[in-house]
Design brief:
Structural class: alpha/beta
Order of helices and strands: EHEHE
Helix content: 25-40%
Largest sheet: 3 strands, parallel
Radius of gyration: 15 Å
Shape: flat
Strand content: 15-25%
Length: 82
């Protein structure tokens, strides 16, 4: 079985197209890495997780970090309007 490297892609809702491009790019790079090194990348997006419960008294960032901790790579996409 080949090693799998999880890649977490995070972005706000206003960059949906860019997030999709990032996911497709991870797939293309994964295909090449699999051919050359036998390693696969798997893109994971925030929508793959259940919504964070507001019942937890800790800061929401704690819950986010707890969810993404097992990932090996992180791609953050931001948008800034001029």
């Amino acid at each position: 079985m080949q090693p799998v490297v999880p890649v977490f892609i995070s972005s706000p809702s206003d960059v949906k197209d860019e997030r999709e491009i990032a996911g497709k790019t991870v797939k293309v790079v994964s295909d090449r890495l699999t051919t050359i090194f036998g390693i696969a990348l798997v893109a994971i997006k925030w929508k793959n997780f259940a919504l964070i419960s507001s019942g937890d008294s800790r800061h929401p960032q704690y819950q986010i970090l707890k969810c993404i901790e097992p990932f090996s790579l992180f791609i953050g996409i931001l948008y800034r309007s001029h």
